[in-house]
Hints:
This is Site-specific integrase. By secondary structure, this protein is mostly helical.
Amino acid sequence: MHMAKKKGAKANGEGNIVKRKDGRWMGQVMLGYRPDGTRDRRTVYGKTRQEVANKLAELKVKAARGELPAPSKDTLGAYLREWLEAHRRFGGSGGQGLRLNTYRAYESTIRLHIAPMLGDRPLQKVTATDLERLYQAMLDKGLGMRMAEMAHNILHLAFTAAVKKGLLARNPCDQVPSPPRTRYRAEDRPRLAWEDVPRVLEEARKTRYYLPILVAMGTGLRRGEVLGLTWRRIDFEAGVIQVREQLQYDADNKLRLVPLKTRSSVRDVPMPADVAAALRRHRAAQKVVNLEGFVFTNRNGGPIRPKDLDYAWIHIRRSLGLDERLHLHDLRGSYTTWLAERGVNPKAAAKILGHSDLKTTLALYQSVTKGMMEEAARALDGFARTAEEK
């Protein structure tokens, strides 16, 4: 004679399932022992008994396959602190560790934006919904899509590491339906028109920053690459600038020459004749003896601070009434566009700029001007007559 099962009783091998006072169902199952010797008991919840039973069965299958993350009481904030320290030393391009500016950006984003909202959340309970709320809160504060995207990218890196370490079964960032993304394109940035170059250089001559700006405009070098130039890197005979390092602040907030970020950034950049002639005159006036000395210096003979060059550019831009969005870095995109207007092969431009991917050059730096579109139209002039002659 079979007796009827009591409501909520345990079926063979399915674990302990009970109905809570709030109407939800709770199930527990023992899956062995943790590394510290304590029992590995897992708890799941559901709206129905069958839902809980299915979740417990799934836990058992994953445990048997070795796919179940080890239980952890770490909060997201505690995990991010530990992860960031390891990533600072061993992450980044080629596993060589993070550059100081990158580390500072990661640290401040975590400390100011991620930790205050999600830092106390258990690592293993962070959901895609939590992340969506974080991104929306950042936008509501007026931080902008770019900052929200940075937070998402940092968390994606951190959660990927957690998955590899067996702390998470999946990356919750991958479950966000529409993660924050900036749609940056070359056409979205202002460019310095070729016909405005003489006006800019004339205005720059009134400052001590004329030569750094001239080099930036004529070579497409990044700000840190321009300010980090030493005389031994100027090869007048070959007509090139050897880009091997850049000027950057170190952990003690002192300006230092540091290696370039990527292999593709190491390159020889051709100098236009005007740039080479100006640098020759500057070298003669400087009476250079030490080739290790900086090409561009402040009044005390030390390297120029990046912000000082930025301020000089802002003054020039405003004096000429140029677009307020035209930053010093946009000269790099302007240079790329000027090359394209003169028919320079895009692959050559990418190599000069230090891009490993041609797509970066085309999508983020090279604008399509009205003149280029007109030239494209004229390129096929006469094709119909040629066809008729044949």
